[in-house]
């Protein structure tokens, strides 16, 4: 095998492994200031195996809202009035909000998803009854003319489920496309330089 062919194949493997799309292994609930508005988003895949499934005959209201208090927090992403199912889990509560805040979103998109964070060491998730464990969740709600300071600030942290996690972040939603990590770009460039310098065998 010539140097050119060997380096070409090695570079192809390297580019695929380094520049491929990263897998999402957790649900991220992010609070980002976008201009004068507050964007709250949920994204990632959710594994609900190991959670207590309770039959629930309710449905989302078709609107999104936030409600925080001294002992419990609610985050409701409800773009459609879909039938939902309830899943319970036990965790050490992370107060999502540093203060008390209650408001209905001005706009909402995506899946219906309801997070309830109780001060008694328990929590609940409400998901559309068509949701399959391991599937992706994507939803947003926007509060116009609202800042992080208006809602009292966010306590970032991670809640651990039976086989997954829910992570709360601030200003992680850039709204842009993902770019390769610097190390990936550097190694890719080294590979290209090596190809240019490699002698091409004569046939």
Question: How many helices?
Answer: 2
What string gives the helices and strands in order? HEEEEEEEEEEEEEH
Strand order of the largest sheet: 3-6-10-9-5-4-7
- How many domains would you count in the coordinates? 1
What share of the residues lie within helices? Answer: 10-25%
Please, what is the average pLDDT? 74
The radius of gyration over CA amounts to 22 Å
- Estimated structural class: alpha+beta
**Got a strand count?**
13
In percent, how much strand structure appears in the residues?
Answer: 35-45%
Molecular shape: globular
Major β-sheet, in short? 7 strands, antiparallel
Terminal Cα span: 12 Å
Low-confidence stretches: 3-24, 174-198
Provide structural commentary.
With 203 residues, the chain is of the alpha+beta class. The protein is built from two helices and 13 strands, in the order αβββββββββββββα. The chain has one domain. It has helices at 3-19, 182-197, and strands at residues 27-34, 37-45, 52-54, 65-68, 72-77, 84-90, 101-104, 107-110, 113-118, 122-128, 136-143, 157-160, 165-170. The chain has a seven-stranded antiparallel sheet, with no helix packed on it. The protein has a six-stranded mixed sheet with strand order 8-11-2-1-13-12, with no helix packed on it. A hairpin with a 4-residue loop joins strand 12 (157-160) and strand 13 (165-170). The longest helix has 17 residues, at 3-19. The radius of gyration is 22 Å and the shape is globular.
